[in-house]
Design brief:
single chain, alpha+beta, 3-stranded mixed beta sheet, 35% helix
């Protein structure tokens, strides 16, 4: 047969021998048919990008005072913000398909409500990773590496001893 075209198995054919539009919108003609979602590909977000989002979110959570603190002295007493001499939060992230597990290591000022500070970090990290990366957060583990006391940090600079 001259002029006959091969069609994929299962395709409906018209009386003239052409393929009929089955309504799926997957036609392969010059009209620019659509490609199925499974064949288009996927967007993947690197673990290190999610780790940067999580680290920023942890800093945001620590940067807010946990009460009506007006000045920086009040914030230091309540444990708000990063204490002087503390390093920024460090994060590691494992992304698997559409979910992430986040581990945050940080330093906090002391005295403060450690449980409330860690809960605030968990909430903010979960919220920001879900919003910005579109990933479901399965776990946020917060590891407090060090506590910075306002009394000991002042004494260590002057060489005094804490009793």
């Amino acid at each position: 047969m001259a002029g006959a075209t091969a069609s994929p198995p299962g395709a409906r054919r018209t009386a003239e021998g052409g393929e009929a539009d089955d309504g799926s919108g997957l036609g392969g003609g010059a009209g620019g048919g659509r490609v199925r979602a499974a064949e288009r590909g996927a967007t993947s977000i690197a673990d290190r990008v999610v780790a940067k989002i999580a680290a920023r979110a942890a800093r945001e959570a620590l940067g807010t005072a946990s009460g009506p603190a007006a000045g920086t002295a009040d914030r230091a007493e309540q444990g708000g913000g990063l204490p002087p001499g503390a390093g920024p939060p460090r994060t590691t992230v494992v992304v698997h398909r559409d979910s992430a597990r986040v581990h945050v290591s940080l330093e906090l000022g002391y005295p403060c409500d450690l449980g409330a500070r860690c809960a605030a970090v968990r909430r903010q990290v979960t919220r920001r990773v879900e919003t910005l990366a579109g990933l479901a957060v399965q776990e946020v583990a917060v590891h407090v590496e060090r506590l910075h006391s306002a009394q000991t940090s002042d004494k260590s600079v002057s060489g005094g001893r804490v009793r």
